[in-house]
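tl;dr need the bound structure. longer version: we got a ligand (zinc ion) that a collaborator sent over and nobodys looked at where it sits. i said id run it. heres the input, straight from their email, havent touched it
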Amino acid sequence: MTKIGLEIHCQLTNLQSKLFCSCKANYREFSPNANICPICVGLPGSLPMLNQKAVEKATMISMALNCKIPEKIAFFRKNYFYPDLPKNFQITQFDAYGPTSIGHDGKITIEGKEIRIRRIQIEEDPGRLIYEGMSEKTQITLVDYNRAGTPLVEIVTEPDFDNPKQVRVFLNILVDLLENLGVSDPTLEGALRADGNVSVEGGNKIEIKNVTSFHDLEKAIHFEITRQQSLVERNIPIISETRQWDDRRKITVSARKKEEEQDYRYFLEGDIPWVKLNSDHFKKLKEKMPESIASKRERYVEKYGITTQVADVLSSDKYYADLFEQSHDEKNAKEIANIITTDLMGFVDTREKRETSKLTHQHLTELANSIMDNKITRNSAKTALQEMVSTGKSLIEIISELDLDNVSNESTISSIIDEVLNEEANAVQEVKEKPETVNFFVGKVMKKSKGKADPSMTLNILKKKLGIT
Ligand SMILES: [Zn+2]
């Protein structure tokens, strides 16, 4: 039997400052070692101050993952040496005196399977090491402490996954959940990192580290299952160790013997007092908690009759959900949902495209209402939508500039139909025996009118002319 567990590190990217000082949490915009202060590099005499907002965001994550939250939380020092860790210890949470981390014993259900959350803890991110140089002999390592002290939440699951696919589904759901909570932007490089641990046939646990993407983590877990199974078949013992993912060769390689928790000599961080989480804290947070993805999905289906599939796409992506919430009313909700999930998705499928998009929720309202009032065909609406995304112009401007207004003048459509019927004599014979082929002519008329002919009017006139019902 295969057992897989995960440790996910999520940066709280929406915070202003680091976890224990006032340096910027958004370290990405600085040149190396320009976003540091005595606290985050641990100079003598410096004292950490806990960022209350980080505790709030971490509590929200714990609530969303159905965790139990203790009344008091504590911080600990995890002692180890590594060049990216200026203090030689990391301030994190640890359950030495019962549960004092921000969350424990949670669960979420994915595709009918329950995944238990063992623990959620608040901790600081270390700095970054940058390797430069061509060969092994001339290689140098640069240290950038801009990231040191950035607020992180670590989510540790129980080993409840049976296969790599479940891991992928879970991570996708988790990313949507974190984004919906407004705590982290998963599209930022390094904002979300996951390590996996794998054991087969009740054997020792192997930890996989240094995987840069979720996609690679799935591959690494897959590789590790195969490797361990082949060892078991040959009666070779599996040693508990940490293995690194070699991105170039697509294999895991042994890194070091696995450390035990006691190796880190955890002790209480004396510079940060225990934090009491009173009921006021929870009450305020409950009010601030955004509506969950599941509840949005249910509301879209029940209130507006949107299909489950469309509601799924709409609710799980915060960008689309926000646009939908701002633009719709009871009447046009279905139309707007369709515009977003069929056409808009193709135009704003990356972070960059979303950032440069000029589309507003007013645009969507305008577009949906015009389709419903037959002022513009769906075909032309797609062209208009693309123009809105790239120029931000109003629908009226776009219609007149691109000549997109709906042709709903009966005599104009009628003369286009006559042209089509003349050109397609053979098909005219066929439609008399097979009335369902009438859509062929609708298509031809749409093409001739450059997508502007009103489709239902076209169909009615066609039927009349062809004498079919
Ligand atoms: Zn600092």
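gonna send this back to them w/ a short note. The mean pLDDT is 91.
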